[in-house]
Amino acid sequence: GAPPPSAAPAEAAPAEAAAEAPAAEAPAAEAAATEAPAEEAAAEAPAADAASGTVIKVASQTPLSGPQSSLGTAIKNGAQLALEQYGGKIGDFTVELAPFDDQATPDIGVANAKQIVGDPSILCVDGHLNSGVMIPSSEEYHNAGLAAVSPANTNPTVTDRGYPEVNRIVGRDDVQGVVGAQYAFNELGLKSVYIIHDKTSYGQGVAEFFRTEAGNLGMDVLGFEGTEEQSNFDSIITPIIAANPDMVYFGGIYSQGGVLLRQMREKGLNVPFMGADGLDSSEFVNLAGDAAVDVIFTTTSVPASAFPRAAELQVQYEERFGEQFQSYAAYGYDAMYICLEGIARAVETAGGMPTRAEVATEVRATTDFDGITGMKTFNDIGDLTVAQYVVLRVTSADAEKWGENEVVQVLDIPAPTK
Amino acid sequence: MSEQPGKSSGSKSTKRDLSDEGLITRLLAGPLGPIFVIGYLAVVTFLLYREPRALLLRFLLFAGLLLIYYMPHKAWLKLLLAGVTVVAIIPAVGLKNPFLLEIGFQVATFATLALGLNIVVGFAGLLDLGYVAFFAVGAYLWAIFGSQQLWQLHSSPGTATVYNVFPLGAWWFWPFLIFGITAAAGAGMLLGTPVLRLRGDYLAIVTLGFGEVIRVLANNLDKPINLTNGPQGITPIQRPPLPDFILHGALPNWLSQVSGRTIGEGDMYAFFFYFLAVVWLVFTIAFAGRLENSRLGRSWTAIREDDVAAVAMGVPLRRTKLTAFAIGAAFSGAMGVIYAANRTFVSPETFSLTQSISVLVMVILGGLGSIPGVVLGAAIVTMLNIDVLQTLSLQLSSLRQGTGMIPLIGVPWAELPTQLDPARYQRLVFGLLLIIMMIFRPEGIIPSRRRKLELHEDDDPLAPPADSENVLITSTGGD
Amino acid sequence: MAPILELHKITKRFGGLVAVSGVEISLDKGRIASIIGPNGAGKTTIFNSITGVYKPEEGTVVFDGHPITGMRPDQITAMGMCRTFQNIRLFQNMSVMENVMVGAHTRTTQSTGIGAVLRTKAFREAEEAVRLKAKQLLRFVDLPLGLGDQLARNLPYGQQRRIEIARALAAEPKLILLDEPTAGMNPQETEAAIRLFRRLRDEMGITVLLIEHDMKVVMGISEWVSVIDYGQKIAEGTPAEVRKNQRVIEAYLGRHATVHEG
Amino acid sequence: MGITLQTTRKVDAQGDGQLLLELDNIHTYYGKIHALKGISLKVNKGEIVTLIGSNGAGKSTTLRTISGLLRPREGEVRLDGKNMANVPPHSIVEAGIGHVPEGRGVFPGLTVLENLEMGAYLLRNHSELERRLENVFSLFPRLLERMQQKGGTLSGGEQQMLAIGRGLMQQPSVLLLDEPSMGLAPLLVEEIFNIIDRLNKEQGTTILLVEQNAQAALQVAHRAYVLEVGQISMSGLAADLLHDPRVSEAYLGL
Amino acid sequence: MTNPIDAGGAAAVSTMPASAPLRVRRTNPIKEILRPLGQLLIFVLGSSIVMALITVALALILRPTRDDMDMLQITLILLPQVLIDGLVLGFMYATIALGYTMVYGVLEFINFAHGEIFMFGAFAGVELLLWIERTNGLDVGNLAAYGLIIVAIIVGMVISGLLAITTERLAYRPLRGAPRLIPLISAIGVSFFLQDMMRFMQSAINGDFYRTFPDFGPFGKRITLFSMPLDDRTIDIAIQVKSLIIIIVAIIMLVGLNYLVNATRLGKAIRSVAQDQRTSSLMGINVNRIIALTFLIGGALGGAAGVLFAFKFTRADPYMGFLPGLKAFTAAVLGGIGNITGAMLGGIVLGLLESFAAAYLSIFTNGAMGAEYKDILAFAILILILVFRPSGLLGSKTTQKA
Ligand SMILES: Nc1ncnc2c1ncn2[C@@H]1O[C@H](COP(=O)(O)OP(=O)(O)OP(=O)(O)O)[C@@H](O)[C@H]1O
Ligand SMILES: Nc1ncnc2c1ncn2[C@@H]1O[C@H](COP(=O)(O)OP(=O)(O)OP(=O)(O)O)[C@@H](O)[C@H]1O
Ligand SMILES: [Mg+2]
Ligand SMILES: [Mg+2]
Predict the structure, then answer these.
(1) Which residues have a Cβ under 8 Å from the Cβ of E273 and sit 6 or more positions away?
(2) Is E318 helix (H, G, I), strand (E, B) or coil?
(3) ipTM over 0.90
(4) Count of CB atoms within 10 A of residue B232's CB?
(5) How many A/E residue pairs have CB atoms within 8 Å?
(6) Among 1.10.10, 1.20.1440, 2.60.40, 1.10.3470, what is the CATH number of E4-11+25-388?
(7) Residue A379 class from Cβ within 10 Å (0-12 exposed, 13-18 middle, 19+ buried)?
(8) Spatial distance between the Cα atoms of B220 and E357, rounded to a whole number of angstroms
(9) What pLDDT digit, counting tens, does each position of B397-433 carry?
(10) CB 3.0–4.6 Å: which of B204, C119, C219, E235 could bond C239 by disulfide?
């Protein structure tokens, strides 16, 4: 059938094209309120359409299927909740979430990115979970000038390329690794370490930074092993026992770490176990059981318990989705909110449908955003000017009590400068 | 490409398929057929231009190509129509929605891979479960030399500083296309030489192992020297330089005006890669098709049918099998180079066993040994993977955010549990599709003449279902 | 006349079983000769040892003046020897034409790939030549030309045998080895087959070596017969001589057998 | 080809005894190929009936239809009056029909002994098994020599012996033999027909025999059917057919 | 085409003297049990010794390359534990490999979905125990705990066995007689389908799709075999109770299956159907039933292995079947696919190889290579072995006869 009348204005017309459009008289209440020049607003949205509302979309892109889907779904749900609480409208525009599934695979991520880029009504992206997917996908966002706010990617490369569109609201692995190593050495007084990682872009990355810092501090790095194995760690643990380290550091995701830890304990290796934010899931204790207690991990996503508003969000989240809250949900929420506020500001300045470049600029300009997970200000490459890094200790083998993990150290660390 | 009609058995096979296909072909017969097809294409194009993101229309456009394939007309007419669709319509709509170009690019990429694998599996009958390794060889070849990886041989992944100069200029892409072919063919021989004595499933497991070896190497060769940057993958990888008038200035400006959205460098590259991949695909099709109907192609079929008899007829077993491996590999090697440049990023995840399997599925779904079938299979699997289910989920999600009701049961969309998102069940749907296809159309969607006869010779509409002993007769047909 | 094929003390063992032991056979150019012997005597094994399917443990095979022991079957075929199989081994899912064209593998000059891809003139001519030759051969073995496009496996047994022979002939052999070519044929078809074998020699000048159990064939057309029993040659000579040989009668023909000459 | 049997059949031997196996207007297809076009034939208890015909006439197809390997699209196969047309092959075997197929169907990976034992799969009595084995080995001493060899490595003729021997192990009440003399040395061909004869005489086994060696087959059989492209063109007492000029011209090669 | 009927195919022939007296040997049940036990023992000892010798030799050769540790000492100290771990893993692979081998042996078809059948078995066992745990039934004495494990294994076997015949019935039987790639693709489809199916069920019912094997009974306890001094401490060489259980159960199943296939009438039928379905039916064998039974047995073994796997490695998830399935298939090929003894040997060799590679590669190469290369090493050795023995370690040599 014929395209609905609203389709044409929904296209993100380039600025020049918009300027050429004939001016029509259509004083919309909101348009006036935002003090936009009347002609321009009218050019974008004739009165008839203003009522039915034109659509702006924010895409989320996370793994919704496959082994990592529980984290990916948390981010997506967080984003959705943010959108709903925001009211689903910016000015005249209805805002929708377009949730994409990157399957934790770079290829799918990039293909989706191309689809996202091809939809002019998408003005911002909330994603991804995996740095390995974020890095290639963000090349596409960059090419299209589309703003992206990452709720979870800690790999330094994400922002180090200096793309004006790519931001993140979490810390960086190079800092996280350092925080972990310093805590182990200075606070716990451990002198030697055996490092295991999961051979993913994220896990190996954070493990490398831990190793470097540990070396600098004078810790003895007795081993540095990567493994893609998911269940059988017998033959990896045996050499650890022989090496007799003071601690084991694990760079990777909870699904692997939990099993590794449990098998370590079963084999009688009782040294402290430490990891990074990949362990940050209540599933971790389900997998590791009692062994999880006293595990130390660093994270850039501070537990909900540390933020007054987070507890409230947790309740709303669980009510809304009937799934257990994960702290990634809060980050998905904040990333979405930053997108929405950026778009709102851009709409305001443009007085109508903004260009992607305008949105990207506004998102990057985010200052002192008071999110669920703390105050956020982006620096010139899209890192947080000051990111929070937390050292947590697991206190209970009960998954329900994951949120009550003890915060043993909170550090506000400015983004490293090159 | 003017083939004398009826000369080669290739064109004969198409004819036979056509006459068997019946309905569509009969409907399209006569002079009204082309007019109908042209009209169809025009309407779909027009609608797509108005509504560039409609999944159904996208789908109809690709279905148009299938219609053209089934037209019972002269080859030149079909080629002309197909050419217009591929060269003009898809890019034109791609101006509006660049995702179409991405689909086109991916379909071309995987169709090429599938055609290469088809030579090994379909023609020569050697089951290769690690085919994607050759793709990886090509991709990593250009990734290593076309990026700054060479500066970083001695730093751990992710810790290196970024330089501004690349060791090789971007134009090296072109020579590397050739190198990619050579390297992949070499890898094919390297794998082939020791394992060709193996039969059937032994070969399958060894090739599977080889595929894993290549992937694990890519994942782990970040030490002792950092060749592949490990799991981090290599980025950025250079794209071939395009003349300035294409990237900037009048042409993109004009395109911007036509399309109503800014056409930038990225878009121009999307066009470029789309065309490059299509060209390479066309080349591959021609290459494979002509080889099939040659002495070499017959030798492949012969060793597949009965290698003892083939050798007795003077077909050198090792050399013939090795050629199959090498040629099959070569296609995907070049595609690897193209793919790396298109993505500007490679990482080991792309080259997993699942990917190898999915290429094999394309080959069999489309029709083992049948070139048009294989291309169609690649198109279907790729679109299913990156487009259809994804888009359906999106639309569902969009409905869910609205206030509408689900028809028939009267429950608001918003209350539909997200558990039911099709995107979450990619594999379930895909798996089911495979099973159903194999049961009801095992010879593939567009079967090769040979397979079709092989499989349907004993089709007996009145016979009891396939579990009857009737089938057992053919199962022992070998020897 | 110079021998085209000489077997010197060929021995082939399977584990502890000596399937062929020290067999000496010499075959003159242009002859039609047979190997006969009881079941399991080692006849097929001798064929396999000649054609390179097996490498005999001892002894040498000389073909047309060149020692060929240990060469690969395809190399031997290229030298001008071709065979059929005891149980028909056609390429079942290839057309009749294609089967015969594969047979011509060693006799086509086509370069491996490039020519085919570019469809050069040379390629097209070579391809046309092979096609033509295949048609001629099919006609030679009395197959209706219309069968060319049929899949081999859809044809009845007798015709499959003929195709197998046509396929072997496509390799332009100087010597053709036929392993029980008339098994499963009825007397009429057998007659036709005998005529065909004669024509192979008379019209194409090919030396023919047969394995047969049908005495009408053996006695009817062979000029020389070697008898194998338990892997050893027990007799040799013209059909008439062999037929009277007491050992042959006991081991193979049976006392009651009355053999007509055809 | 003069196979002289010690006994030449009396034409009236058991010619019209009790009806055991009956094919009634059988149509069998291979896909689109209409291989049997309305075959009707009868086999009485204790008879040897032979089917002759040129290549591709449908002889093997007839046997396969009887033993259930193929299903007729039309018509009935009756054993003792019961329709067996849609009974699976293993049940047909249980009902007492044994089939030595064309192309032997030796289990290539099982030893000769195991192959023979498979013939008596339905038999659970060990001493009876031993007895039958001994019987087969005494008929084919060659098989005894090759007892531990894998079936697939036997020579062509040895495989044929094995297939027949395995059929004998079944001791069926009706035995379908498809070209049993194919690939056998003359001495053995003679032996095979003797065995068929003795089997029928001594054990009363009913035999349906398909042979290219029509002369020998007609000599050993009571009655015969001539098959031509899927249809029965002649039938009658074997001795009559043996001397029928149409038959001798077409099938005896005289 | 792999079973040439014309006097083709060939195995090592054990010929009898021409006039051997006819003595039909009946299978001796005791012998059929003792023989595989003996074989197993030989495999275990043999491959352990070979692996150990190679490792020690390597350690001696490479010793001078590292001065930060005494490579030989470390090697020797790790050795017993690595062997034990490798064997436990090996037995697990062997049990899974049997499922592949059974189905392959009969249908010449790689049942790609076997890994998922294994996974369903694991979930069945885990879910059962979790359910018992919810009813507080897991706080039981040691003996009852053993009983519960056995029940879990049996439930796993039943579920997997039923699943296997269902898939056979629905997805493979209609394809019988088609070229071999067709059922392979169908199996891949089944594999994908089952993975997502389980994930769907789990996330619909439990919200998440990992399940953790409940901790109960004395199974985590480690039995210290002996201790070795290293520097100023002692290293305990120990085996977990559950590892012992795995070995015992695996051995029982291996021997049982061997008995079934080699010494029973059913086994005979299975072997003949494997050779030639049409002829088998002419022997009075109900081919469909035998094939279904084969799937049932293979599936049940896979299910048991699944429960054991979850038991040992503490968790079940919908994707758990893929890798062990692949490894087990490799093991089956390594040993000579279609050959039951071969599957056992292949499993043990692969388990040991993996275990050794993971433990020693990093030590031997001074960190240049590590545990991540264990799969490569396994595949490399597989290729090497197949190059020299193209039909696997115990597979029969198939030289085609013309
Ligand atoms: N691959 C093999 N392994 C073991 N024994 C074999 C093999 N091939 C053949 N034999 C044995 O060697 C002997 C000779 O076999 P061959 O096939 O040459 O016999 P033949 O003379 O052709 O008999 P027929 O006339 O029955 O075809 C036979 O006893 C056979 O069992
Ligand atoms: N498996 C099959 N697929 C297709 N057609 C077949 C098949 N088997 C036999 N036919 C066809 O069925 C017809 C009858 O074949 P059948 O084998 O019954 O003949 P026959 O009388 O036994 O001949 P022969 O003497 O050659 O054994 C023939 O035309 C043959 O081509
Ligand atoms: Mg022979
Ligand atoms: Mg027949």
Answers:
(1) E106, E280, E285, E287, E290, E291, E294
(2) coil
(3) no
(4) 28
(5) 111
(6) 1.10.3470
(7) middle
(8) 15
(9) 777 777 777 777 777 777 777 666 676 777 788 888 8
(10) C219
> Do the two chains A and D touch, given a threshold of 8 Å on CB pairs and at least 3 pairs?
no
Residue B392 placed within a domain: no
Query: Which of D111, D154, D159, D181 has most ligand 1 atoms within 8 Å of CB, for mutation?
Result: D154
Q: Which residues of D touch B473 (CB under 8 A)?
A: 64, 69-70
Please spell the DSSP secondary structure of D104-154, one letter per residue: ----TTSBHHHHHHHHTTT---HHHHHHHHHHHHHH-HHHHHTTTSBGGGS
Q: What amino acid occupies position D223?
A: R
Question: Residues 6 or more apart from E252 whose CB is under 8 A from it?
Answer: none
Q: How far apart are CA B195 and CA B199, in angstroms?
A: 9
Instruction: Work out the average pLDDT over B439-447.
Output: 84
- Residue B293 located in a structural domain: yes
Chains C and D touch (3+ CB pairs under 8 A): yes
Domain range enclosing B138:
116-367
DSSP assigned state of B422: G
Backbone angles phi, psi at D236, to 5 degrees: 160, -170
- The verdict on a CB contact (< 8 Å) between C87 and E13 is no
Is residue D9 pLDDT above 50, yes or no? no
Residue ranges covered by each domain of chain E: 4-11+25-388
Residue among A291, A106, A88, A69 nearest B235 (CA): A106
Q: Which residues contact C58 (CB under 8 A, 6 or more apart)?
A: C9, C10, C11, C22
Interface size C-D, in CB pairs within 8 Å, comes to: 109
Half-sphere exposure of C19 (CA within 13 A, CB side): 25
Q: D69 phi and psi, to 5 degrees?
A: -70, -30
* CA–CA dist D69, D126 (Å, integer): 29
Residue A351: phi and psi, rounded to 5, are 70, 30
Cβ atoms of D108 and E5 within 8 Å: the answer is yes
**Residue B474 located in a structural domain:** no
- Decide if B438 and E276 are in contact by the 8 Å CB cutoff: no
Q: Are strands A374-376 and A369-371 parallel, antiparallel or unpaired?
A: antiparallel
Helix (H, G, I), strand (E, B) or coil at A146: coil
Distances (CA, A) of C146 to C97, C138, D35: 10, 10, 20
Find the CB nearest E185 among B438, B466, B479: B438
**For the domain bounded by C1-80+173-262, which CATH number is listed?**
3.40.50.300
Q: What is the pLDDT of residue B295?
A: 87
As a whole number of angstroms, the distance between CA B444 and CA B452 comes to 9
Question: Is the pTM here over 0.95, yes or no?
Answer: no
Locate the domains of chain C by residue range: 1-80+173-262, 90-172
- Total tally of structural domains belonging to chain B: 1
Asked whether residue B212 carries a pLDDT value surpassing 50, the answer given is: yes
In a domain, B178, yes or no: yes
**Cα angle, residue E253 at apex, residues E249 and E258 outer, rounded to 5°:** 150
Q: What is the pLDDT along chain A (418 residues), one digit of tens a residue?
A: 333 333 333 333 333 333 333 333 333 333 333 433 433 333 333 333 333 358 899 999 998 877 777 788 889 999 999 999 998 888 889 999 999 988 888 888 998 998 898 888 899 999 899 888 999 899 889 988 999 999 988 888 889 888 999 999 988 888 888 899 999 999 999 999 999 998 888 888 899 999 999 999 999 999 899 888 888 898 889 889 888 899 999 999 888 999 999 999 988 889 999 999 888 888 888 888 889 999 999 988 776 667 778 888 888 998 888 777 887 888 999 999 999 999 999 999 988 889 999 999 999 999 999 988 888 999 999 999 988 888 999 998 888 888 788 888 888 888 887 5
- Contacts of residue A100, defined as CB under 8 A and 6 or more positions apart, other chains included, come to A59, A60, A61, A62, A112, A115, A116, A127, B390, B394, B423
